[in-house]
Amino acid sequence: MVCTMKSKLEEYFAKFHPRNFKFTKMTAFFIAVTLAMAGMVLFSAISRETEFSTKNQLLHDAVEYVPGRVLEVVSEQTSIGTHGIRTGSQYLSVQILKGEMKGEVYEVLNHLHAESSVYAKKGQILNMYLSYNIEDPSIFYVYVSSPERSYINYIIIGIFIIFLSVVGGQTGMRSVFGLAFTFVTIIFLLIPLIVREWPPIPTTMGLSIAMMAVSLISILEFTKKTFVSVISTMSGIIFCCGFYFIFSAALSIFGYHAVDLDYMQVVMVNSGIGVGDFLFCAILISSLGGLIDIAVSVSTSINEIALSNPNSTFNDLFRSGIIVGRDNTASMANTMILAFTGTFFISLVSMRIGGANFSAIINSSDIAIEIIRAVSATLALVLVAPITAFVAAHVYRGGVTKVLQK
After folding, report:
1. What is the pTM of this model?
2. What SS3 state is found at 190?
3. What pLDDT does residue 7 have?
4. Which residue of 26, 96, 169, 245 is most buried, as measured by CB atoms within 10 A?
């Protein structure tokens, strides 16, 4: 038994020996995408959105977020109020751990209130907010922003990656790679580009197509299923865009209703950032996963039918795809509607507590926005199923099969 386990381990690790390494299309793909992600992170590091905002008079002060360690709680006047939330204030002695002021010690007034109660303790690491006066950098302010949660977030993300990789195997690991590309693209490329006044809608659509293509290729490799899923998901993105503009015009809702106008009005006046397009960008990004899911499910089902029955005609495959698509669409539509409704649940409760009746709620801008979010994404998802069935039936039984081999 020991010899058997040893031989299996030797066989497994032999795959990673340099002489057994084969440079394939997927290897080139993973290398290229990894280099692209590194480039995005570098671009974000040198884009310096804070300097851009200051130049356009969006910020009166230059700001920086750095970690700081609480050396001592000098004094405090706090009490535990409603629902166990501690309120009051603390005077803290905090040492800055990173940045130009690393090692400096400051006495900071930490206000605790219901919206942001950060009760500090000696030795705790906090995320500090530094605000510099532009005209006189020697004048600055230090505030407590939040607890330092980055390490806990990294641990949680690591647990998610491990579970997905262990349960999903090699496919799960490739899925993690696609998710990493999506995250890096949104955080380190899409947002910096929008901040630098790139038009939000075409920028988001273009990068959404890139994120979708990388995710699908990572999971399905360069196969016919990938080709079908990419075409189908792209059609879903176009439908989602069309439904959004139709419904937003009919309900007289624009992206400005979905943002914090107290600050965004300054953004609109002093820069060319397309604030009114943010709602569409959010809808498209949040619906992308559902569109990919439906396209992959239907494409994979038709592919398996075609492989198991090589004599299947176009009508047979299309009919099977419609049947599979109906079931998947029904369950996914329910998931999408509940997901969008769940994000608005607290606001609904708050409106009812405030005395709003059904008529007031259904006519509110917030409800109209949620209807646009849910229905635009879900209708696009519903249409992706038959489109995928049609394209897949052609690909697996048409001329494209001669070009793309599984």
Report:
1. 0.78
2. helix
3. 60
4. 96
